[in-house]
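Retro notes (design track)

What went well: tokenization of the new backbones is finally stable.
What didn't: we kept losing track of which sequence belonged to which structure.
Fix going forward: every design gets posted as structure first, then sequence, in one message. First example under the new rule, 260 residues:
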């Protein structure tokens, strides 16, 4: 696990976009795992900028999103399919049939989840997964207590998650109670992971995830066991880390061949 502390979300987004850009340039048919919410918006903005500047071609890329609310159609303004279309897909040249988001209106949810897992396998697995971090430590919608061996499935959202996401809806009672999410084990199968977290509100849970014990009660802590994870956080989100100065020292002293 590499912890990268930068002054601002924009700095983190620029670095993350360079890593994604290098993968897309070097691997034809790269498979990206994507996240939603406010955290990855600066990253997607930077990817759009690179594409418009002629530096990134997404025509061969396949994407899989982490999750979707059950009960929302793809054209609902609060659905994650709609979010991805507005924040990224409409502004790059990725082929629509290569973008995968769980279907919140699936008649057979269990069957759909199994098919989603199979679709990932059929594409050769996810090369790079983008993650945000919930204030309770969830990744995707894998809430505290989720099995660390879980796969794509239906989950019931906690009251805290629904409160956190209520800002995207008119009223909290409009926030769905259920979702489809990739499982923890699905995420851990990804070859590379970039997690982004910003602001003082994420400081305590970042410290738990990075420096605390691995526990299903903090699902993000399992990332300590992944061989290739980069954690991008701003100074505010890093404020509770015991090893903060060391992480900065390590990053500043990276050899040139490791730079990005």
């Amino acid at each position: 696990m590499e912890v990268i502390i930068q002054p601002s979300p924009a700095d983190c987004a620029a670095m993350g976009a360079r890593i994604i850009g290098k993968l897309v340039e070097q691997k034809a048919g790269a498979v990206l795992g994507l996240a939603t919410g406010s955290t990855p918006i600066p990253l997607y903005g930077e990817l759009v900028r690179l594409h418009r500047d002629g530096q990134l071609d997404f025509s061969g890329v396949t994407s899989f999103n982490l999750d979707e609310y059950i009960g929302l159609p793809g054209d609902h303004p609060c659905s994650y399919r709609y979010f991805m279309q507005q924040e990224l897909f409409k502004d790059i040249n990725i082929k629509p049939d290569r973008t995968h988001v769980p279907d919140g209106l699936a008649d057979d949810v269990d069957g759909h989840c199994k098919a989603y897992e199979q679709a990932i396998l059929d594409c050769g697995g996810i090369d790079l997964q983008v993650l945000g971090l919930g204030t309770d430590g969830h990744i995707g919608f894998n809430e505290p207590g989720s099995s660390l061996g879980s796969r794509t499935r239906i989950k019931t959202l906690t009251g805290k998650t629904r409160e956190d996401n209520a800002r995207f809806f008119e009223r909290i009672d409009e926030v769905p109670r259920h979702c489809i999410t990739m499982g923890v084990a699905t995420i851990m199968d990804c070859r590379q992971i970039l997690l982004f977290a910003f602001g003082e509100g994420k400081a305590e849970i970042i410290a738990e995830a990075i420096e605390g014990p691995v526990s299903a009660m903090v699902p993000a802590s399992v990332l300590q066991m992944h061989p290739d994870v980069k954690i991008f956080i701003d100074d505010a989100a890093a404020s509770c880390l015991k090893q903060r100065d060391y992480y900065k020292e390590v990053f500043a002293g990276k050899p040139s061949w490791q730079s990005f």
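Added context from the reviewer: The chain has a mean pLDDT of 97.
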